[in-house]
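Minimal example, chain plus fe (ii) ion.
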Amino acid sequence: MADVSLEQASPSFEGDVPPERVPEQYRLGPAFVPKGRYLDLDFMKRELDLVFPRTWLMACRLEELPSVGNYVEYRIGDRSVLVVRESKESIRAYHNACRHRGTRLATDRGRVGSIICPFHGWRWNLDGSIKLQLDAEEFVPRSEEDLGLQPVRCEQWEGFVFICMDDEAPPLLEYLSPIPDVVSPFGLGNMRIRWFKSTIAHCNWKTVLDGFLEGYHIPGTHPQLNRSTRDNLNPATMKEIDIRAWSPTSVYERHSMYQSLGVKRKQSNRLDKDPARRPGAGGDDPRAGIANAVEYIYEELRALETERSVRAAQILRETELPEGKSAGQVHLEIYRQLAIDEGLDWAEIEPKQWAAAGTAWHIFPNMIVLPNQGSSLVYRARPNGMDPDSSLFEVMCLEQVPVADYDKKIDVVPEFHEDYRQGDLGRILTQDLDNTENITVGMHSPSFDGHRLSTEQEMTIWNHHRVADRYLWD
Ligand code: FES
Ligand SMILES: [Fe+2]
């Protein structure tokens, strides 16, 4: 570890559990994560008992609950929670269990006038109070509270509805700190779901998230993103890898982020992702470089760029670049003008705000957000049943809508594809998911003991485990 300090390889925060409290087979080492934390059923059971029920979990977006009575069921491990729109202003969450004999009250998503148990027909108002107890006179009298649906904490941030099953947890905004501040310029609350797909990943729920928590894999997994022309998809040479990719991570008390800079820091003074300064990939014409990159991301990721930013890219191709302005800057100016003309509330985002927002944020435990102006990307992963090597992986593309459409109801229909290859997820996400089974098979090898992480580009992964230890062994 010639150039690496111990502090860099094992960052710590006040309130962390002392390492000796963690059983040896699960104890983190400097930039090292033992594989049992991914592969052992006992470890996953502990996560289901001690992490998920005590943290804030993103259950749905507000637009998934457009009308009074709309509900979404959120399942995690053996628990089920119902998130319900009680009124125009209020969203509530309840444990999804009948007070009579425990039956699950509603499944998946839908809309109801009142919540009706499918077994004996007891009913509840949307505020959780009991409405009908059939043959009530035959039952021992019980308080309203005892017969009412049991509430789960439910709070909102930027259009996301979070739930928390622990009364001791801090309020959502405090829990999310520092993310609300750095993400606020991007107006995720003014975005709506454009598409929402889910699939089964053949790996641990953390493995699939880990693949989106570092940019270190970009040269290996997505070599086309580093190529100088969009059509040349040959694997990058090592020389190109060395000069084109660098994605440092930053860790916080609970959450973490990485930021893809596109070029190695030592060879550039470019320290943030300011899109006005992104490198082009268009040969001699910087306009073509920007336009190619925008079009490629729109076609193959179907998020972060929009139909509007692609139109701006097409205009850019024909626009004379003014003295002293980069193609990236001019693209942003055209995009901005189109957005404003088309009724969007388009913020001026300062270079330092772009820098602070980074590329992707891990919201502990199981959500990732890529903040971006106009369109953002969200990932969520959960264990699939009791198999540590299988997970439910969901991708949500959010897109900013015109101010006039803020109250417009949309029909969100999540698509589920058991096989991600059938899900038309685009080249980039498909490449990421292609890795997952290989990682799982390889990790089971007796020759492999755990992840050896880059202290600069992969500490997001280590940080997840450090934070988890606070819940697992406190
Ligand atoms: S179990 Fe729900 S009404 Fe009987
Ligand atoms: Fe990737």
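The CA atoms of residues 323 and 469 lie 54 Å apart. The pocket of fe (ii) ion (ligand 2) is lined by residues 217, 221-222, 432 (CB under 6 Å).
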